[in-house]
Structures are given as C-alpha cells and as structure tokens.
Amino acid sequence: MPRDEIQVSGRVTIFDVAEASGVSYGTVSRVINNEPHVRETTRKRVMDAIDRLGFVINRQAQSLARGQTHVIGVLVPDLGTGYIGEIIRGIDDELDHAGFDLMLFTTHRRAAKESNYVASLVQGVVEGLVLVLPRNPADYLGVLSSRNFPHVLVDHQGVDTTSPAIGTTNWQGAFLATEHLINLGHNHIAFITGTMDLGCAQDRLDGYKAALSMHHIPQIPELIFEGDFFQNSGVAAANALLDLAVPPSAIFASNDVMAMGAMDVIRHRGLRIPDDISIVGFDDIPQSAMVFPPLTTVRQPLEQMGRVATQVLLAMLKNPETKNSRQELPTQLVVRSSTCNYKDRAG
Amino acid sequence: MPRDEIQVSGRVTIFDVAEASGVSYGTVSRVINNEPHVRETTRKRVMDAIDRLGFVINRQAQSLARGQTHVIGVLVPDLGTGYIGEIIRGIDDELDHAGFDLMLFTTHRRAAKESNYVASLVQGVVEGLVLVLPRNPADYLGVLSSRNFPHVLVDHQGVDTTSPAIGTTNWQGAFLATEHLINLGHNHIAFITGTMDLGCAQDRLDGYKAALSMHHIPQIPELIFEGDFFQNSGVAAANALLDLAVPPSAIFASNDVMAMGAMDVIRHRGLRIPDDISIVGFDDIPQSAMVFPPLTTVRQPLEQMGRVATQVLLAMLKNPETKNSRQELPTQLVVRSSTCNYKDRAG
DNA sequence: CTGTTAGCGCATTCAG
DNA sequence: CTGAATGCGCTAACAG
C-alpha cells in the first residue's frame, strides 16, 4: 500500500530511530526524555536520526505508559460573552507554563448530560478538571469527589459542595457598589438579581441589602427584581421598575449584561443615563468600557481567577494531600460614566 | 498501600470485569463496543459486572490500540471578544454530534511558537485541526500539508496556501455596506482597514473601493486609514480622519471593534451618531447590537463558519481523498441605528 | 458465539 | 552507560 506510506509519513516510531542510529530503543527513550546517563556521542547520533527521520513522539503512547496525559479539562457553559473567555485565558496561560494542554468541554453538549461522560474523561484522558461556572454541578461533582479526582470550581459558591473553589468577594463588591450610589445621594435604589440558585447571586443581593441597612435606607421589595443573568431579564426588570409609581433613581444589576439590557430600555423611554437614572453593573466584561455611557461596574478579576484555580489544581496534582482550599479574590469598584449625583427631577 | 486503593478507585480494567463476570476480556471488549455477536445472557452478565465495579473505559488505551483518538484540535489566537467564541460554538456543536472531543490551543502560548509543537500534537493526540484566524500560519501549515494531515482554515484567505478553507464573502459585504452609505447620500466616506497581510482585510478594502468606483465617487487616499483590527486603531483612525480639512460624513471600519473605537472618539468630540457622522462596522459581534447607537454592520455567519469547517474536516477524516475545498459563506448587511441620510451640516 | 494471541508506541525496571 | 524484558489498557484478527 503505497498510499499508506504517504499518509502516515509521520509514523516514525522510537523503534525506527533506534534502528537508524544503531542503538536499542531503550536508549532512544532516554535521549528523548533528556535523561542524564547517556554518552554524548550516542545522544548526538540518536538526535541526528530523530531529525533525519522527522520523528516526533506519540503522546498517546507516552501517556499510556507513563500513566499521565498532561492534559487538563475545562468545563464551561458557553463562550458567548467574553466573560468565560477571560477566565480561560488565565487558565490557558498557567497551563502553558506548566506544560499542560487544555481540553475544552461545553456543558450544553448532549454528551455532557450523560452521567458517565465526565467519568470517561476522568478515566484516562484528563488529569484534572476546572469547572467554570457550573450550573448544576450535582450531576458530576458526586463522581469526582467519590473518585477523589482532582478538580476545582471557579465562580461557584454553592454551599453544598466540599470541592476546592475560587470565587470573588461578591458580597463586598455589591456592598461597595451600593454604597457608591448611596454616597451619590440615591436612596431609592433598585436591584436586579442573578439566578438565585447560584451562590454568587445570593451574595450580591446580600451585599446590596447590607449597604442599605447600614445606611438606614429601608428595603423596598418592589425595587428588587429577580433576573437570570441574561440581557432579556435586564430589559424586563427595567420595564417593570420604570413602571413603578415611584421609579428608582438608580439601578444596580447583578451583572453587566443585564445592566446593558436595562440601559437599552431606559434610553428607549427617552431617559438619560446617568442624568435621569444611574446604572451599575457587575463583572466588568470587556464591552462594559465600550458601551455608552461607559458602565460603572464591579470588576471581577476573571483572568486571575482562572489563573489561581489552575495553580490550585496543579498543586493538587503534585501533592494529592493538598487541603481543599476555598479562595476569594478581591472585587473592585470601577467608576465610569453611568452613575452621577442624584438630582431631584421635580426640583 | 491503602492510599493507592483510594486514589485509584477508578482503576478498574477490562480485565477485572472479565474476571468478575467469568468471561475472557476479549468478550468484555465486544460488549463495550456493542458488537453484535455476543449472547444476550453473556452481555447482561458483563454489563452487570461493569456497573458493579464502576468500570469506565480508558480512552487513552483505546485510542492507542485503535489508532484514533476522536479528538480534534482547535487553534485560536485568543478568546477576548466573543468573535472567536461564536466560531467555537459552531465547531463544538458539530463535533458533539460526531462524537468528537475538542482540544483548544491558543497560539499566544510560548509552546506554540516552537515549530515542532504542532507536530507533536498531530502525532497521536489529535486527529485533525481547525485553524481559526491564523495570523502567521506559515509556521505550521508547512508541516501539516507535507504530512498530509487533515486540517482546515477558518476565515483566512491567504493566497499562499492550498489548504481547505472556510471564509465569508468579505468583498461583497464591504461592497454592500459602502453602497448602503452611498445610497444614503454620503459621498465622502472614510475606510479603516484591517491588518493588511490578512486576505479578508484586503477583500474588504477592495469591496469598498469597488463600490465607490461603481458609483463614480473618487477615491481619496486620505480617507483610507490603515488599522489593525484592534480598538485603539479605530481611535487613532477617527482622530486622524476628523482632523482632516474636509472630514468624512461616514466611516466604514473593517471590524466592529474598530468601529466602536471610532464611535468613542466621535462622541468625545461632541458629535452625534449618526446625525453628524454615520458609522458602519463589520462582523456583527454580539455587543454590536448592544452599544449605543446599535451599530450598522456586516454580519458574518461565525457560528456557521465553525460548523461548516468542522463538517469539511470530518469529511476529510472519513475519506482522505476528499478534495481540498474552499467555501465562502454569505455575509449580510445589518442596518441598525448608526447610519442615516447625509445631512449637509452647512445647510 | 467466545477464548487466545499479538500488537499500539512508549516507559521503566533490571541486568550487564 | 546501554540492551532486553515487561507492562500500560485495550482492539483486532484468528481460531475454535
């Protein structure tokens, strides 16, 4: 089969190299892996043969023999907004430094729904798993924990799990953002929540409430609208809030995407931002600086979250005894142009 | 080592299953792979053992033995804007249907710079490669072609390559967008180019020029500004263009991100969009509908590009004889609110 | 229908 | 310092 020869021109094995350089393939293996006890002339001879034949190692086989793949898996819900992209950037960069490769899995896959899908990854192909923003992690978290498989959660403070996790100070971020509005003179501040089954959404709501009560501002239930982190719920929320008998002078959304949805509504109603109504978001996704007016928001260190998560995971890989840590990275209020002093419109 | 037992609780092999169910492991293999010639009772017995022991197959070993991994690699420059994210969504979805997994590689990795990095992937771990927006593909395209390794380019119409590629009708998109402005009465239309070593950037420029000459509008060199697809170059371009003795009444940017940079500048100078100046972008990234005013732009079917690229790749995998195809998917003008009729400001 | 055998390509002992 | 042997976990003929 001459076709075979063409197609598999890369099928040069360690054995071919051994033959070409007149040594045993054990020695070739030693050269490949940079082991010390090889005579320099031998090493040179082998190297030459490798170059000449165009040998590249078969990682599949290496992994099998060695029992480790140097691949870690990243489970994400989606890649739509750039939010996840930032996190992945951090993960990827850190993996690169450690010489690992990245396998990406999106949970909206049909396959991901099968309970044993994760199990089959874990068995062989992937040495560890970073779970980014897992929506219903119950599905696989059980398997992972029971198998004692290295994994770490990013941005999920579910209370139900004992897995290591990296989050941010959601409560504090929401508190500071709310306080920022209060300091600007607002006292009728609306809040759009996220999906309330997520820990981070709960924390943000709590931070908002805490700031209000700290400043002796009454909580008005009508001003709290339950959203779902998608733009449409921001639209719905703004419409509902602006229809109130006494509409808010400021809206704090649990993420930037919903904030942008709200901004849209506000503009369509002929109101000005921030003159008529102030808006604050959460996340600081890339486009938040690009919308008009640039959005005041709470910055999450997304890239760093990915980075830290990866470091934790790699540490667990090195030393399985590593304690399950939970870390919170600091959020930061970024004041841009969507907020300003409260002006009594009647005045 | 009792610790070993805990950690490797997943280390149940096909052999263990065979022993537990009293058959040879050849039979177990048959059951796993759903091969027909197995007696129903035997199958049942094996299945039971599999469940009982919690056996999951080791894909690493399976891949080695079978000679195929069912993993394809996706090479991307970055994940910042959601542009790439859309493409990946298409790729991932299509791979899912075909039962393949996705390995993600970012070309900004240090490792990616090493010439043999791609080679080492190609040898063993990955069965095919989707190259998204490769900036300087010369580095690895050579190896891929010479090894006859299945790969497909997305959104790169470099003329220098014979690899299969999926692109869009950049020329036509740019032509239609320019014509849209002309039809609105603009005849002093500026153009911000992309990185000119990319085929798509060249095509867009050509489309712009073609529309002008078609409508007998003179090309004015000062109105063509060379950008690089990043926001900052949109800012620089807008500043330069607005400082012209006779500034343009409309700006067409080669992508949305640069268009948004330009919008920023325009607003900072106290000009209104589109009343004072119309803006058109290219790509239709998600946030284009969300900025203010919503951006008129040329839509690229990003997800579909990923989808089609993947289909082509999978077809090549099935049948290596498949001819190297180059496809162009249609772009589409999306008119939103950043463009309007030309109004003579002096009038 | 099922057991047996020989690899897949490499790492890793253990001798020499 | 180097060669030979054994196994990683599974597939794929080949018998029976």
List key phrases describing it:
347 residues, 6-stranded mixed beta sheet, 14 helices, alpha/beta, homodimer, 434 Repressor (Amino-terminal Domain), DNA-binding, Rossmann fold, 3 domains
Low-confidence stretches of chain A: 1-9
Proportion in β-strands of chain A: 5-15%
Largest inter-chain contact set: A-B, 62 and 63 residues
Write out the CATH superfamily name of the largest domain in chain A.
Answer: Response regulator
Instruction: Estimate percent helicity of chain A.
Output: 40-55%
Q: How far is it from the N-terminal to the C-terminal residue of chain A, by CA?
A: 90 Å
Task: Give an overview of the whole structure.
Two copies of one chain form a homodimer. Chain A has 347 residues and is α/β, with parallel strands linked by helices. The first copy, chain A, has three domains: 3-65, lambda repressor-like DNA-binding domains (434 Repressor (Amino-terminal Domain), Orthogonal Bundle), CATH 1.10.260.40; 69-167 and 302-329, 3-Layer(aba) Sandwich (Rossmann fold); 170-300 and 333-344, Response regulator (Rossmann fold, 3-Layer(aba) Sandwich). Chain A has 14 helices and twelve strands. The first copy, chain A, has helices spanning 2-7, 14-21, 25-32, 40-53, 59-66, 83-98, 110-113, 115-125, 138-146, 170-183, 199-214, 231-242, 256-268, 302-318, and strands spanning 71-76, 101-106, 128-132, 151-154, 165-168, 189-192, 224-225, 250-253, 278-283, 296-299, 326-329, 332-334. In chain A, the strands form two sheets. In chain A, strands 2-1-3-4-5-11 form a six-stranded parallel β-sheet, with helices on both faces. A six-stranded mixed β-sheet of chain A has the order 7-6-8-9-10-12, sandwiched between helices. In chain A, strand 1 (71-76), helix 6 and strand 2 (101-106) form a beta-alpha-beta unit. In chain A, helix 6 packs parallel to helix 14 (302-318) and helix 10 runs parallel beside helix 11 (199-214). Chain A is elongated and about 90 Å long. The first copy, chain A, starts with a helix and ends in a 13-residue tail after the last strand. The relative contact order of chain A is 0.11. The interface between A and B is large, with 62 and 63 residues. Strand 2 (101-106) of chain A pairs antiparallel with strand 2 (101-106) of chain B. The structure holds a DNA duplex (16 and 16 nucleotides).
